[in-house]
Design goal:
Layout lengths: L12 H16 L20 H10 L8 H14 L2 H13 L4 E4 L15 E5 L2 E8 L10 E7 L9 E7 L8 E5 L10 E10 L4 E2 L5 H12 L24 H9 L1 E2 L2 E2 L4 H23 L15 H21 L17 H12 L6 H12 L7
Parallel strand pairs: 1-4
Antiparallel strand pairs: 2-3, 3-7, 4-5, 5-8, 6-7, 9-10
Helix pairs in contact: 3-4, 3-5, 7-8, 8-9
The structure holds flavin-adenine dinucleotide.
């Protein structure tokens, strides 16, 4: 069975079940959620997740499929959630019994996230949710969603509240999920429509009107800068190295025939590959510096950079792979003659999304410029 290149390209239940089983085994072996308290289903340790990640990576294991749950929902619920959310939902999230998705973006609320219009209205002791989310990765398999909704129309930032909402249990009743097809022909993200979904009050995360503050914890972790380390592992479509890894270009160049030799004989190409490897290593070291408290005078200075820099390196790596493959790069998945099974071509097309996902890079630069460097606000 071919695996997708990342969790947000999961399309078939067979792929999901294979990877779900892997996450369950990793959790049972103590490799997932190790730094969370035992009461939340974690390992009750500290500073272990990063080591577990390295070991899983080194062993060449596939990726963990509950990426949005592990990377965003779990730290947010651990920091802001109530006992039910931590003690009942988190163990099932870690073991992958439940898949999670993130319902933040809407047709009119992407970069301007504070413009969310999905309503949460008081209904008895609980809430009723009505609205439309978009670009919701993994919603087609999700059991739960972290949701940012409007509880007060008069106030923009203080008018939002954060919830967890059950998706799969209410499908085709008050929740409808419609897959969106990407340039690659894959799905992965979806539109999600809420038509009066009723939820109890203990599904609310944080206080009423504090959704924006709670969402900042989610966003900081989504961009790689939060205090909880995300369990992560391995590979998708490509078996040897994670796609987009600059070192994989060396191997590709050595295997690609050019004249009487290979593409790796070209000194200019070798130089371009080295430039990408240097940028990649620099970014990795930058991420390590972000863990030194004395260097973090502003909480976002180094924390925001991994997503910004690595997403651009990934695009450049995939583009150079296309160049190395030449005309053969026009062949993709399913073509018997496609180099590396067409994974680079697919990765190149998917790489356009990585500078948009988790907040576009233009917005990340605005945040760094305005909030960290104190430059004038963009119009
Ligand atoms: C692969 C992928 C997966 C995603 N998964 C999820 C998910 O699971 N859940 C979820 O909630 N969302 C998800 N998203 C949505 C993502 O968060 C939004 O696409 C992103 O925040 C941009 O919002 P938008 O698409 O509405 O673009 P817009 O906000 O309309 O922006 C359009 C363009 O204008 C630029 N722009 C806008 N405002 C400014 C400004 N002030 N200064 C400079 N430039 C600006 C942007 O950079 C962008 O280039 C996903 C997106 C992608 C690509």
């Amino acid at each position: 069975m071919r695996l997708p290149q990342s969790a947000i390209e999961l399309m078939h239940r067979e792929q999901l079940e294979y990877l779900r089983d892997w996450q369950r085994q990793a959790y049972e072996a103590g490799l997932v959620g190790c730094d969370y308290p035992q009461a939340s289903g974690g390992g009750g340790r500290s500073h272990c997740q990063r080591i577990a990640n390295q070991e899983m990576q080194r062993a060449g294991r596939p990726f963990l499929p509950n990426i949005l749950g592990l990377g965003m929902a779990a730290p947010t619920l651990q920091i802001h959630g109530n006992d039910f959310q931590r003690e009942t939902l988190l163990p099932r999230l870690f073991s992958c019994a439940d898949i999670w998705c993130q319902g933040f973006s809407e047709p009119g609320a992407g970069s301007d996230l504070a413009n969310v219009q999905t309503r949460a209205e008081r209904h008895g002791d609980g809430w009723r949710i009505t609205g439309h989310k978009v670009w919701t990765s993994l919603a087609h398999f999700a059991d739960w969603m972290i949701l940012l909704a409007r509880t007060d129309r008069e106030r923009k930032y203080q008018g939002m509240t954060y919830f967890v909402v059950p998706i799969s249990a209410n499908l085709d009743e008050t929740v409808r999920v419609r897959p969106l097809i990407k340039i690659t022909g894959e799905t992965g993200f979806n539109e999600v429509f809420f038509d009066g979904l009723e939820i109890p009050d203990h599904y609310r995360v944080g206080e009423i009107g504090q959704g924006w503050e709670v969402a900042q914890t989610t966003l900081l972790h989504e961009r790689g800068g939060g205090p909880m380390v995300t369990p992560s592992s391995g590979h998708g479509g490509t078996p040897e190295r994670a796609l987009g890894d600059a070192y994989a270009l060396l191997d590709l160049a050595r295997r690609t025939p050019r004249g009487a030799g290979t593409a790796a004989d070209d000194p200019v190409l070798r130089d371009r590959i080295m430039q990408l490897i240097i940028r990649q290593e620099g970014s990795k070291q930058g991420a390590r510096r972000a863990r030194v408290p004395a260097l973090c005078d502003h909480p976002m200075r180094l924390a925001l950079q991994p997503k910004l820099v690595m997403s651009e390196i990934r695009q450049d790596v995939c583009a150079l792979a296309m160049e190395i493959q030449g005309a053969a790069a026009s062949l993709s998945i399913g073509d018997a003659h496609a180099p590396d099974g067409g994974e680079w071509t697919l990765g190149y097309l998917n790489s356009y999304g990585v500078t948009i996902a988790a907040g576009s890079n233009e917005i990340q630069r605005n945040i760094l410029g305005e909030r960290v460097l104190g430059l004038a606000k963009s119009k």
